[in-house]
Write a structure and sequence with these properties.
Blueprint: H1 2-23, H2 31-49, E1 56-60, E2 63-70, H3 73-84, E3 91-98, H4 102-146, H5 149-154, H6 158-183, H7 188-207, H8 209-224, E4 232-235, E5 238-245, E6 249-253, E7 259-263, H9 264-269, E8 272-274, E9 280-289, H10 295-307, E10 319-326, E11 329-339, H11 345-362, H12 397-412
Parallel strand pairs: 2-3
Antiparallel strand pairs: 1-2, 4-5, 4-8, 5-6, 6-7, 9-11, 10-11
């Protein structure tokens, strides 16, 4: 029992000492020599670092005491971390203060400035070589972009040719930047520049989304070209003759003589009706006949009358059919085809309607009137003179006049035009 008690006491006294030695924080042997070594080591480090000439080091029992002055609070804070890293240091008493001497505080800034000047002087020849390489690459790119034949031969119009040239210039500028950064051994900076450019481009894309959409639509329309100058078109409900296609809008001349500017983004997304795509064009109108009339004979009479007109094409042939039954009579729909390059579609329709009316009345068929009117006749009126059955000319004179106006505007105005007669048409 006595032996067990002695063993327990021995373990109780030896365990703390073993734990303390294992942690390695504070030693109890040879501390005088260790203090001297710490002081020497700390002074050597401060001597190599510089800017600590006024700092003194005192070490006692593993505690490092620092006194003196430095030129900045950052240097004072660095002393704590530096002293704590030396082996055997128990604690650090940092009593260093910031100096109030202006000359001492300016000296490090002057040294840093002179150091940067020396670095710039050393760096200047390399930077000049990089700048020369960049300028040479950009000069070659811009010279190739100014050449006329390759780009105008590849592009469907001048607008696309200029776009090719701009893309070539941008490509050579980026290539020149890469070469210059490689000479400067700063290619890592390129990824930062490209990342910043991507973020800026994304932000600008959202900001000018409508402008970008309009520009892309201009490119697509200049390639596809769904119409030509002087084509009669209908775009988004607006009708007129095409004057020109610019990089921003499509310009029409309305039949009233007004200019209509439609943004290309709207043109690209809208339904486009090109009335000039084919020379043959159909007109259609309705006419009422008496419900007691022979409908088959009336329909044949109307079809033969329309087909006999000199401006009506034989193929496709004129036609007429019964559209609906109304209380006032029977509705017939009449169609005919004309060559719109030689005949006015509106005048041809009007003259055909007049001839059909005369043919129906001369056949003894009444044309009913759905309206009712009460007239007080005091005197017996004279019968109206018989209407002439001679076919009136329906030449496309107004269309020719509009064509001359469009041609005159295209000749006298130097505005850009993306339409070309020799390009592919959609």
């Amino acid at each position: 029992m006595r032996a067990i008690t002695v063993l327990f006491l021995l373990l109780s006294f030896t365990a703390p000492a073993t734990a303390q030695e294992a942690n390695g924080t504070i030693t109890t042997q040879g501390y005088h020599q260790q203090d001297a070594d710490i002081a020497v080591r700390m002074r050597e480090i401060l001597r190599e670092l510089g800017n600590y000439d006024d700092v003194t080091v005192l070490v006692s029992e593993g505690i490092v005491t620092l006194r003196g002055t430095t030129t900045s609070t950052m240097e004072i804070s660095a002393l704590d971390t530096l002293a704590a890293r030396i082996e055997g240091v128990v604690a650090v008493k940092n009593q260093v203060t910031e100096t109030a001497d202006i000359s001492q505080r300016l000296n490090p800034a002057i040294d840093r400035f002179m150091s940067r000047v020396d670095q710039f002087i050393i760096f200047l020849p390399l930077a000049a070589i990089a700048a020369l390489a960049f300028a040479l690459v950009v000069f070659v790119g811009f010279t190739l972009a100014r050449m006329r034949h390759p780009w105008e031969r590849l592009a469907p119009n001048q607008f696309i040719a200029d776009l090719y040239r701009q893309l070539l210039r941008i490509g050579f500028v980026i290539f020149g930047i890469v070469i210059a950064l490689d000479i400067l051994n700063a290619t890592a900076l390129l990824s930062t520049i490209l990342g910043a450019a991507g973020i800026i481009g994304l932000a600008l894309g959202f900001a000018v989304r409508d402008t970008v959409e309009n520009f892309i639509a201009s490119v697509m329309l200049s390639i596809r070209q769904p119409f030509r100058p002087n084509d009669t078109v209908e775009i988004n409900g607006d009708q007129g003759k095409v004057i020109r296609l610019t990089s921003r809008a499509t310009i029409l001349l309305s039949f009233d003589g007004n200019h209509i500017r439609i943004p290309n983004a709207t043109v690209f997304k809208s339904r486009i009706i090109n009335y000039s795509q084919n020379a043959e064009r159909r007109f259609k109108f309705s006419i009422m006949v008496d419900s007691n009339a022979d409908l088959q004979e009336t329909r044949n009479l109307v079809s033969e009358t329309v087909q006999a007109l000199p401006f009506i094409l034989a193929e496709p042939a004129a036609d007429a059919w019964i559209e609906a039954l109304h209380p006032a009579g029977i509705e017939l729909v009449v169609t005919g085809w004309v060559d719109q390059n030689n005949s006015s579609i509106v005048r041809a329709k009007g003259e055909t309607l007049r001839q059909v009316k005369l043919a129906i009345l001369n056949a003894g068929i009444d044309i009913p009137d759905a309206t009712q009117a009460i007239q007080i006749i005091r005197d017996i009126p004279e019968p109206p003179p018989a209407e002439s059955t001679r076919v009136q000319p329906v030449k496309a004179e107004s269309d020719a006049a509009l064509t001359r106006i469009v041609d005159a505007e295209r000749d006298q105005d130097s505005t850009e035009d993306l339409l070309r007669d020799d390009s592919l048409k959609e």
